[in-house]
Amino acid sequence: MARIIDVAKHAGVSVASVSRVLSGLPGVSEDTRARVQAAAKALNYRPDLAARRLRSRRTDTIGLIVSDIRNPFFTEVSRAVEDMAYEHGQRVILCNADEDPEKEAFYLELMHNENVSGVILSPTLQLLSQFRASDYTFPVVLVDRCERSTEADAVVLDNVDAAYRLTEHLIERGHRRIAFLYGAGSATGQQRNEGYSLAMARAGLAAQASALRPVVADARDAALELLAGRQPPEALMASNGLLLLGVAEAVRELGLPCPERIAVAGFDDLPWVRLVDPGFTVIAQPTYDIGHAAIELLLQRIAQPSQAVRRVVLRGELIVRGSTAQRVTAPA
């Protein structure tokens, strides 16, 4: 295998000149640059990237730790991060924490050991409650989950506003008993519950919220229990795509016509929500934009470590479909 000294001898220049050319640095003549490039091609020279990174203390690697890779939201966010990382010559290490603080801690330690340039993190509620960016040896950008008081770069949806508008839509369509299923382990779920509860309170209605693991089966079981009660809800809301799928399974299992017997609404405009009859009303999150903004913030933080903390807050889009049609009260 050719070494940098072999390229220098072949081109008739110094090792320092070869290093400057291969690193894309100025300070060499066009003739020298052409000779070095020709020599490297002739010798099939490949730079030792590992050694270069060790010397520079930079790995050109970004860590992405998501809370649940099964959630399609994080799949789309991951795609945006990878797309932009590739454009900037960065590699991505993707880790799935499974909403488990121990796995999350393990992967954060891995990022430290790998000397990554920075990390994009969707934190568990436990970590977020004590999160300090200064505790880490690398820049961190929080994505999807962030408390109002957290001092860290972050990209989030306006969750309170989105859940408030979705609940308000159901109320305006004549629904009064509205049950809400939300993720128990995240700030996102709590913030959406806050928006739901606020809309219900302002309408003088009783809130009926259930905190669940973000698992389809759990949402299905919870929805079945609610719908079998003495006063079943007139509408069911879910805080993410996985819980919404569980609600859909319960409604189908019971054979309830939607929206005549039960209205359904939730978060995430996934392909399947458009295909079910009559189509589910949802808050569509700008997932790709969230991932894109997160890596933009991270690259800026890497380039300017002392810049002020920034938070990007995006707004969800209410997409109304047939599952939340106007409620018709049966005649007395």
Automatic annotation (TrEMBL):
Pfam families xref list: LacI (PF00356), Peripla_BP_3 (PF13377)
Keywords: DNA-binding, Transcription, Transcription regulation
Domain of life, per lineage: Bacteria
Gene Ontology MF terms in the entry: DNA binding
Stretches assigned to the HTH lacI-type domain: 2-56
Family annotation (SUPFAM superfamilies): lambda repressor-like DNA-binding domains (SSF47413), Periplasmic binding protein-like I (SSF53822)
InterPro entries xref list: HTH_LacI (IPR000843), LacI/GalR-like_sensor (IPR046335), Lambda_DNA-bd_dom_sf (IPR010982), Peripla_BP_I (IPR028082)
Record-given protein name: LacI family DNA-binding transcriptional regulator
Organism this protein belongs to: Niveibacterium microcysteis
